[in-house]
Amino acid sequence: MENEQQATQKKLDPSQLELPESLPIMPLHGFVFYPGMGFPLQVSSETSKQLIDDVLLGDRMMGMVPSNRPQVSDEDILGPDDLYKIGVVGYLHKLNKAEDGSYQILVSGTKKFAVSEFFGSEPYLKAKVAEVPMEIVDDKKIEALLFNIRDQFQKLVGGTELPQELVATVNTLTNPFYIAYLVTSQLNLKLEMEQELLEITPLQDLLHRVAQELTKRLETVEMSKELQASMKKDMDERQREFFLRQQLQAIRKELGEGDEDKVEVKELKDKIAEKQLTPQAKSVVDKELARLERIPPSSPEYSVSRNYIDWILDLPWMDSTTDTLDLNQAEDDLDHDHYGLKKIKKRILEFLAVRKLKEDIHGPILCFVGPPGVGKTSLGQSIARTMNREFVRIALGGVRDEAEIRGHRRTYIGALPGRIIESLKRAGSNNPVFLLDEIDKLGSDFRGDPSSALLEVLDPEQNSTFTDHYLDIEFDLSKVMFIATANVLDTIPGPLRDRMEVVELSGYTMQEKVAIASRHLLPKQVEAHALQEDDLEMPSETIEALITSYTREAGVRNLERELAAICRGTAAEIARGRSEKMVVTPEGLYDFLGPQRFFSEMKARSWGPGLATGLAWTPVGGQILFIETSKMKGRGGLTLTGKLGDVMKESATAALTYIKSHAADLEVDEDIFSSIDLHVHVPEGAIPKDGPSAGVAMVSSLVSVILGRPVRQDIAMTGEITLRGDVLPVGGIGEKVLAALRAGIRELILPPLNEKDVLEIPEDIREGVLFHYPHTIKEVLEIAMEKAEAEAQG
User: pLDDT digits over 164-208, tens only?
Assistant: First the structure.
């Protein structure tokens, strides 16, 4: 009976078997099983052996489906998502059980099927399947493709170690699908590509794709043989390195890259020959170019080396612009661009004069310090234009990384030079005007301190050998004119501040603002809003009203914004059909800007004993500061309010101590302090205030409330005090004087040692202002206090 069963099995043609509705699934690891193929498999997992046992007792058919998961073994449990949806029906011909318990089976591929649904998991995966037909079409194109495949496959077998019997097998096969699959199995394709070929249904598409892959494989084999033949004569132990380079060049030539590389290197050599370089830069770039020739273009190091050479060649090592040394023309240009600023203009003209006499002078390093909106940045542009130099602006606000200045070393991926070198490349000359904007706002963190990196840049004795980490070549910065801008000096580190020549810019006076608005700001906004000169007219009194009633600043930024608002309103009127000129009067500002925003602080105060006018400095300009003191019954306590800092609180305490210790000299009853409490308040309590410069005003306010004699309303004061009664100098005198003038005060009390600062204020501003320079607090009180009634009558 068993012999009859085996005889029956031998008579069966597996390809003619009818495909059942479901099949047990045998996962394949790392290869694809094709129809028409037959070969032995070794099965070791218990799940697969159970499947073989069941199939052997049944119709001997199972689904052979490849796994789409990389690096899986027979023991891995695979689910539906781990398998492809197209497979081949395998027919089990023979089973042998090995001594180690594994199965050795002989399987042949019969039909293709598509999985519609996987189901079951124990003891093995099953699937509902549908046959994918392999329709054979008689066509001349099919015959041509088959002929080409047989011919090319014969060449491939002849040029490789594939057995010659494969050629005879391909020639004897009549099923074109079997021919295509047999050839595909010998091409060493990736699993994904083999599965893709299995899933192609139309015969013509399949043969065409197989022919393409066969041609690629044959070209690779032939190229390898040609390379081996061309290199074989040079093969030698001592010439191994030379052989590898020749092989690499041959490959690049086949890829069409060799000629392009030679052209690229030749272009770089020509650029190096034409470029003026320093001896150090020439040596480095020649060495790097020789290294570039040895690096394969496909290597990441190639682009790194090429970028490094490009940076060196793009920098202006010896390229300079010619300075304009006509002092009269330079003075006219500066006066045209900026109103006032005589001190800075004088400094620039002095530099040009010395440059005219001595060409190799180092560029100056200036630091413009002043409130926002006074023209620090635009002044740098004007200086560059006046000197006929390139202008480069580097914004330093918020920079925290030292590499922003010095660059990254080339060992880092994506390394680039710092902003100094990058800006020089952009300028195209080695003597531009560098504007280091907002240098007082540099930060520092774990990435380093940028201000320390600037020490070398801003030192005329060191910057001739400035070295960027990326280039690692010395670059001469001594010809660069560095201009730094800052609002305050306190946040600039001492060593960095010491390297710069500080030039202070005070806020503008009313006259200067009117002139700037008329000459510069208004014409600029008229042009920006597409207006004509005869469309809008603003008399001087209107501009003055705009400045006093709608802006309160040291600079002119807000003034320009308000002028822009007036121009927009004018443009709107013209767009509605207005034809006559718009003449804006002081009263007409309301129509454009709304209600008046600022009022005179002096008029808002009800004057009396205990109120004194001080002067304060802020980063945005000077301002007047009222000190108010009240007395009440108590036990000698002192209360301080107004969000005062520690230094300002100490000034108030020192002022009261001075009054108590000099009560007799000040005609103050010493017993009064034990029966009263004093409260010192500085208005605008939400704004922090600190510093010693309010000491003089605090003494005046305290003495005023104690004696019941008002401080003069038409006088303002500033100065630090000591317990001995001396008046010490303070800073920001220029800004404080302008703040007093804006408030309508034209009599000031200043420390004697600040007289030198007053002399630096333009004479037209000082004109009509009375300055007092008392040495002691007693002298201050004699000037500031209103006379007693008896003295006034006497």
Answer: 888 888 888 888 998 998 998 888 888 889 889 999 989 888 999
Q: Is residue 333 in some structural domain? A: yes
* Contact partners, residue 121, CB within 8 Å, separation at least 6: 79
CATH number at residue 481: 3.40.50.300
Q: Are residues 456 and 357 both part of a single domain?
A: yes
CATH code for the domain in which residue 763 is found: 3.30.230.10
* Same domain assignment for residues 113 and 217: no
- Active-site residue (options: 112, 376, 479, 736): 736
Burial of 101 (0-12, 13-18, 19+ CB in 10 A): exposed
Question: What are the tokens at 630?
Answer: 């009240």
- pTM given for the model: 0.58
Does residue 643 form part of some domain?
A: yes
Residue that finishes a domain, picked among 593, 623, 651:
593
From 693, 700, 701, 704, the catalytic residue? 693
Q: Which of 734, 668, 653 lies closest to 703, judged by CA?
A: 668
Adjacency order of strands within the sheet including 676-681:
638-641, 676-681, 621-633, 611-618, 716-717, 747-749, 770-772
Residue with tokens 């205990």: 610
Structure tokens at 326: 């006509």
Tens digits of per-residue pLDDT, 431-473? Answer: 899 999 988 888 777 677 888 888 888 888 888 888 888 888 9
- What would the two tokens of residue 640 be? 């301080």
pLDDT digits (tens, 9 = 90+) for 711-756: 998 899 999 999 999 999 998 888 888 888 888 889 999 999 999 9
Instruction: Write the secondary structure of 89-153 as one string of H (helix), E (strand) and C (coil).
Output: EEEEEEEEECCCCCEEEEEEEEEEEEEEEEECCCCCCEEEEEEECCCCCCCHHHHHHHHHHHHHH
Query: Is 67 considered catalytic here?
Result: no
Q: Is residue 103 part of a domain?
A: yes
Determine contact, residues 559/546, Cβ cutoff 8 Å.
yes
Which of 736, 737, 719, 732 lies closest to 774 in space, CA to CA? 719
Domain carrying residue 100: 15-132
Lowest mean pLDDT among 164-168, 348-352, 414-418: 348-352
Number of domains in the chain: 6
Same domain, yes or no, for 538 and 662? no
Q: Is 693 a catalytic residue?
A: yes
Q: CB–CB of 152/75 below 8 Å?
A: no
97 occurs within a structural domain: yes
Residues 494 and 346 in one domain: yes
Is the predicted pLDDT of residue 84 greater than 60, yes or no? yes
pLDDT single digits (tens) 752-766: 999 998 988 878 788
Q: At 457, which amino acid appears?
A: V
Residues 676, 651 within the same domain: yes
Last residue of a domain, one of 504, 535, 566: 504
